[in-house]
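Email to the structure team, subject: NADPH:quinone reductase model.

Hi all, the expression group asked for a predicted structure before they design truncation constructs. Nothing fancy, just the tokens so they can compare against earlier work. One-line instruction: predict NADPH:quinone reductase, return tokens.
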Amino acid sequence: MRAVVLNAPGPPESLVVQDVPLPEPEPGWVRIRVRAFGLNRSELYTRQGLSGDAVTFPRVPGIEAVGTVDVDPSGTLRHGQQVAAIMGGMGRKFDGGYAEYVCVPASVVIPFSSDLDWAVLGAVPEMLQTAHGSLTTGVDLRPGQTLLIRGGTSSVGLTAALLAKKMDAVVLATTRDPAKADLLRAQGVDHVLIEDGAVAVQVRRLVPEGVHGAIELVGTGTLPDTLRATRTQGTVCFTGMLANEWTIPQFHPMDVIPQGVRLTAYAGEAHNLSPQVLQQFLDDVASHRIHVPLARRYRLDEIVAAHREMEANSLGGKGVVVT
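Reply from the structure team: attached below.
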């Protein structure tokens, strides 16, 4: 089969498409014929060597994939069943979804049924898992409340806006690029905020008491300001690091966290995305009730260009590779 192999950390050109042996599933694992896979920033960090001892090389990256069951030694999943696979060590502990076939533990496989295009399906699993988990587990957003999405034009940010609007929330979202304001409005965002490092001031003009919840997708550099935009008894969920900012130097909680504001974090796994939530989302897409923020589709041999664009934050949505 063909796969993208990363022999050592490096620039996008370190990703090489080559022929590798077809993997064989061991007991408790499933081999999937990959039809598409989404691009994620964690794969960018792996390529840059920022995943530490969690990754050994050479490695086929990719923390997610969608496709059809090729072999299930247990017989639980039928041949040809549509499935998604996410997380659980994919692309880190073992070879991941950047390939024509992938073997994964059965525990990370989520079955579904859909007539949607494979590129659309490939955009959904990890993006939905992260957005849904951030809203529910991280923020515990309730219908009609106010939500700030810091990093709104990321794929997770756009999906979180869609899900929040289904709950009749009032959504505020940030972007550094005024030209992307229409993209946010198309996802239902009520108030587009141009990122200037002091978004809390803009939020308080619109919602004087502060928002009920916030999803921080940019990183630790903007986290203190996001906390200041949140009301007493409100919740900020730290989910992403688009700016590659991992730590807060000389962190002083009493100075950084406003009185009464809750700070949580979210980093989910396959078990955090139920088949019911995935199927309902896909059904909503098929019936045009919601729109998947698919920014661009690539072929496998375009993986270097795909990583260049992901690293430049130029996609404005989800990039997907169709095999």
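The mean pLDDT is 96. The longest strand covers residues 29-38. Ping us if the truncation boundaries need rechecking.
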